[in-house]
Write a structure and sequence with these properties.
It is a single chain. It is built from 16 helices and nine strands. It is of the alpha/beta class and 321 residues long. The protein has one domain: Alpha-Beta Barrel (TIM Barrel). The strands form two sheets. A seven-stranded parallel beta sheet has the order 1-4-5-6-7-8-9. Strands 2-3 form a two-stranded antiparallel ribbon. Helix 8 packs across helix 9 and helix 15 runs parallel beside helix 16. The longest helix has 25 residues. The chain is globular and about 60 Å long. The two termini are 19 Å apart. 45% of the residues are buried. The model has no long low-confidence stretch (mean pLDDT 95).
Amino acid sequence: MMRQAGRYLREYRELRSQYPSFLDLCYMPEAAAEVTLQPIRRFGFDAAILFSDILVVPDALGQTVKFSKGEGPQLDPLGGQGDIDALRPEQVLEHLQPVFETVERVRGALPKETTLLGFCGAPWTVATYMIAGQTTPDQRPARMMAYSDPETFQKLVDILVDASADYLVRQVKAGADAVQIFDTWAGILDEDGFRRWAIEPTRRIVEKVRSEIPGTRIIGFPRGAGARAVSYIEGTGIDAVGIDWMMPLEFARDALQPRATVQGNLDPIALLAGGRAIDAGVDRILDALSGGPFIFNLGHGILPETPVENVERMLMRVRGN
């Protein structure tokens, strides 16, 4: 269910209300482990995904990160070379030690047959937030810097590649069975930008992680990539590719499954709508992709207002009972 697997659950909201900020919850291992385990207890998913956020990395680098209710993340935007030079990559792993403790706690509590997935944000997507200081409709500030000052932008990406790779390595050493790299804003890049800012940094992360831990299973999610998902798979070396709900299923079957495991891609709005929308969506996906390596999932994060009974209906449809 992507990485917000608990936020539609009443028990998550009750726990979340006890903490003043979202980041506080991310850094409290006992509570973060509980949130990670809640969907497993309720639904028996095949995998648990670490409760955290992609913006813990810029927070660990020393950038101010806040989450305001109803407004999304807010960061002190990076204005240029001076702000990038002020980042502190040497403190990342120490700052994120509570996350690694969460991974250890979850792995110890999960049944052996349940996979534990760690994750990070892709450098391009994380950089878009670091530069704009918030979500924007087209992430224009980061795109402007990438076009107008690619050398400076590259320095930020290089910092994020190294920090993200180290972060994933430590998650695997703490007990994650596989890790996922979320590139939520990959689809807004042009062809050259997609190659330089989405594929190349992810390739470097994959190589760095596997140089430390050979054979690590890695999932990439280049949201909005469309047909470029082929070059993304081939250029990054990932084992599995997440696909959004806009990806044509025939293309995923014919072009992607011969190259990698495919993960996706029910529209979260269909899950919210419920009833026949769930049944039809699940059936289409299973008919198209069940013949190859495949992980059923949503095509993006679950919406918090999704009724629990809709999740139950989806699971029954997928599992055929």
